[in-house]
Specification:
This protein is mainly alpha-helical and 297 residues long. It has a domain of 205 residues. It is globular. The termini are far apart.
Length: 297
């Protein structure tokens, strides 16, 4: 029984890893006051960049592949920063456009990589009969570091102040635009890292739509965990367990498999409704989604 529970926890951690990484990136964005609905597209581009570099030759560097994924995520998110921070466009419209651009570009450019072998994948660590990806440990460490940064450092205070009251931060000499630009690009880099995990570790291949809606769940997860990086760990494990349960029960239950495929998305609606009932949405940064123009109230 203990082995079954341990296996479920390890698998939930593995499946929840891309959710956690993408959720941490979205938390950085939204703590600075910028909503980014383009996480799905950023993950897709990151996965493609990682696989494209890693599949070049048997000697290709996995570190270079991971770096390429993060760079691709940051570069694509710069479009969102330019639109929302510099041009002051609607953040929701820009994020949706980013999701479509990212998934569309990845699907188009990735056609030549479908079916190609991955010479090297990121090796998993053996933990007494169970395996764990280094990406999973990195995601857990990043969650702890982000929580410390936001709550215990001057930089974290600056980031939170920009998301809560950008006008007050501006008066104190904070470059609101620069902070928001860096936050959006940093969040995009983490979303790209989530895509690298899919391409280099979890699936070790490239296929169109390999993100399978994980980016959208990560966006909803931010609200569910109240913009808290440590709660994001628990939330990602919870949804990871739902995916694990989906795989375990398919073929062993009279319930149609489509029900299990839809389960994580149904639970997203449920948990968001519950979060709204208990006032979780009240934890959102006060300036979230609002355009800041110096001198305007």
């Amino acid at each position: 029984m203990d082995n079954v529970l341990l296996e479920a926890l390890v698998r939930a951690l593995a499946v929840g890893t891309p959710l956690l990484l993408a959720c941490l990136g979205a938390i950085i964005n939204e703590r600075a006051g910028i909503v980014n609905l383009g996480v799905e597209g950023l993950m897709a581009v990151g996965a493609l960049a990682a696989f494209a570099v890693a599949s070049k030759s048997p000697d290709a560097s996995l570190w270079a592949a991971v770096g390429a994924a993060m760079l691709a995520g940051a570069a694509l998110s710069a479009l969102h920063a330019f639109a929302t921070v510099t041009l002051r466009a609607n953040q929701f419209v820009s994020g949706l456009a980013l999701a479509m651009i990212g998934t569309g570009a990845a699907g188009l450019l990735g056609k030549k990589f479908e079916g190609l072998p991955l010479f090297n994948k990121v090796p998993d660590w053996n933990l007494g009969g169970f395996t764990l990806s280094p990406f999973t440990l990195a995601a857990l460490v990043l969650a702890g570091l982000l929580a410390f940064y936001l709550n215990s450092t001057r930089g974290g205070l600056t980031l939170r102040s920009v998301g809560e009251n950008p006008a007050a931060a501006d008066v104190l000499g904070v470059n609101v635009g620069l902070v928001r630009w860096l936050a959006v690009m940093g969040g995009g880099a983490l979303a790209g890292l989530a895509g690298a995990f899919l391409a280099l570790s979890y699936r070790a291949s490239w296929a169109d739509n390999m993100t399978a809606g994980l980016g959208w769940i990560a966006v909803a997860l931010v609200i569910f965990v109240g913009w808290n990086p440590l709660r994001a760990v628990l939330g990602s494990v919870f949804f990871g367990f739902l995916y694990y349960l989906q795989f375990r029960l398919q073929g062993n239950s009279p319930i149609p498999p489509e029900v299990f495929s839809a389960m994580p998305f149904i639970l997203v609606l449920v948990v968001l409704a519950l979060a709204g009932r208990r006032g979780q949405a009240g934890n959102a940064p006060a300036a979230l989604g609002r355009v800041y123009v110096r001198g305007e109230r």
